[in-house]
Design goal:
76 residues, elongated, mainly alpha, 3 helices, 0% strand, single chain
């Protein structure tokens, strides 16, 4: 396989991974006060060290559900 083909494959994956790490980190920081500090540090470590599965597991299992405001309708 030629080098330029590998670059065309690897660059989008690296950009996606970096963007999702940044998104997950910013989402974690928004809800920083709602969790214990130990849990926050564990999630930060997971997001940045465990490659693609760190931010994916945070987005699936670690996010705090958004609280509804009084003016939002209940669909369920």
């Amino acid at each position: 396989m030629e080098t330029w083909v590998l670059i065309l494959i690897i660059v989008p994956v690296v950009l996606l991974d970096s963007g999702m790490k940044l998104f997950a980190t910013l989402d974690l920081i928004k809800g920083w006060e709602k969790r214990s500090k130990n849990t926050n540090y564990i999630w930060i470590t997971a997001i940045w060290v465990v490659n693609m599965f760190g931010w994916l597991s945070y987005l699936l299992f670690g996010r705090i559900p958004k609280e509804k405001t009084e003016d939002e309708e209940d669909w369920g």
